[in-house]
C-alpha cells in the first residue's frame, strides 16, 4: 500500500461585518454577520450578544437586554418562577435595541438568583418563605401564625399564597414533612421589597456568617419586623398545637 499523503487546497473567503450600539457605560450590544464562500456555497451566520466590563468573582453572571416588565416580575414573584419569563430576555439584543422601544440592560446571576443594574447595584428579587427550615420556618412551631398573618396582610410588598384546593392563607404542612420543627400549619408568601429596602437587605446578608445557610431568610424576617411573632424556642421534635 502507498504511504503517500494526498493534499488538496482550496480558498475559503469570509466577510465579517461587526455592528455595535452603546447601551451604557462600557456596555454595548453587538451584531456580527459572517458571509462565508466555500467552493461556490455561500453560508450566512448572524450572532447577536451583549458585552460588558469584566466583573470580578467566580460567578459574575451575564449582561442581558430584557423587557422592562421582567424586573417587576422578578421583584414580586421571585427568580423565574414561570418558565415563560425567560422569554422576556432578548435572544437578539442588537435587533431589540434597534427597535427603539423601551428595554432594560441588566446583569443576571443565576448562581444565587440575583439581578444587578448596569452600574452593578442589586435589583430586588422576591424571596419565598414557607414551613421548611431553609425557607424561614414560617410554621406554627416557630411563629404565632394568627398575628403574623395579620402583619403580612398589612404589607404592600408581600404576596400570600393560599391552599391549592382552598382559599385559606394558613395551610397544612404535608404529612410526610411534619415534625422536626416543621409544625403542622404554615404560611407561604413572597416578599418583594422596594429597591432601597432590598439593597439594605442585601448589605445585611453579605455581613452574615456565610456558614449560616438560611441567613437570608432570617435577615429578611428581622428586617420586616416579624421576629416579635416568634415562639419561645422548643424541642424540634415537638410540634406546636393546632391553636398556635
Report the major sheet. Answer: 4 strands, antiparallel
Outline, from the CA principal axes? elongated
Helix content: 10-25%
Please work out how many helical segments DSSP would assign.
Answer: 5
Q: What is the alpha-carbon Rg in Å?
A: 26 Å
Averaged pLDDT, please? 92
The separation of the N and C termini measures 89 Å
What is the strand tally? 12
Instruction: Give the amount of beta strand, in percent.
Output: 25-35%
As for the number of domains, it is: 2
Overall description:
- About 20% of the residues lie in helices and about 25% in strands.
- The chain folds into two domains: about 15-125, no CATH class; about 125-230, no CATH class.
- The model has no long low-confidence stretch (mean pLDDT about 90).
- The protein has about 240 residues and is α+β, with helices and mostly antiparallel strands.
- It is built from five helices and twelve strands.
- The strands form four sheets. A four-stranded antiparallel β-sheet has the order 4-5-6-7. The chain has a three-stranded antiparallel β-sheet with strand order 1-2-3.
